[in-house]
């Protein structure tokens, strides 16, 4: 597909349907199970918390995840851009397989890196990788550069996937984690629902470079905001702040 060919925006509106149905089903039918530890000396059931009870750094973290997710459009756009840059249609399945292999291999050193970078450092690095990949696609890579970008894109998942969710537990006490994970997933859902539609509209009206540039900008903004956010408890224990000198 060439970048000057319009993308049917209605396709992306239709892509919202499964997500909307999932949210409705979750709200209507899913109920939190009661803890079996009640009366057995355990910590008791998790209780539903209001926003005022959840720590402000956690609420800020949810906002940052929303910003990133708003620019995290469907990976189908990457395949469209690859075709636009000369990758033959018959090579698309192979390109996607290369991405899948990179994603799988990147998850292996994830724990090792988490011990050294900390969870916040992992997420910031993953967001930065995402921003770099999207800037590369915005520039219009050709030939081997497309394949390299897909390999690097797989690294993003190895750095971020799973760590984002685990980082929630660093901000909230155990009895509030049910509500915290609910709000965290809500932030992702609110960002993911319009992300691909927004990307498609910008591609259609302003072109592919502008659409990928927006994704890169939102990822970079999320990385910068997360760097300003105080680290979670686990990262503080592993990487305590250096004491200030008295002079």
Q: What's a quick, concise take on this entry?
A:
The chain has 247 residues and is mostly helical. It has helices at residues 9-29, 56-70, 76-84, 92-107, 110-138, 144-160, 163-168, 177-206, 208-228, 233-238. It contains ten helices and no strands.
Distance between the termini: 62 Å
Residues in β-strands, percent: under 5%
Number of helices: 10
CATH C-level of the domain at 56-226: Mainly Alpha
Please estimate the helix content.
55-70%
Approximate shape: globular
Describe this structure as you would to a colleague:
By secondary structure, the chain is mostly helical. The chain has a domain at 56-226: MFS general substrate transporter like domains (Growth Hormone, Chain: A, Up-down Bundle), CATH 1.20.1250. It contains ten helices and no strands. Helix 1 (9-29) packs antiparallel against helix 8. The protein is globular and about 50 Å long.
Write the layout of secondary structure elements.
Elements: H1 9-29, H2 56-70, H3 76-84, H4 92-107, H5 110-138, H6 144-160, H7 163-168, H8 177-206, H9 208-228, H10 233-238
Based on the model shown, name its key terms:
247 residues; mainly alpha; 10 helices; 69% helix; globular; disordered C terminus
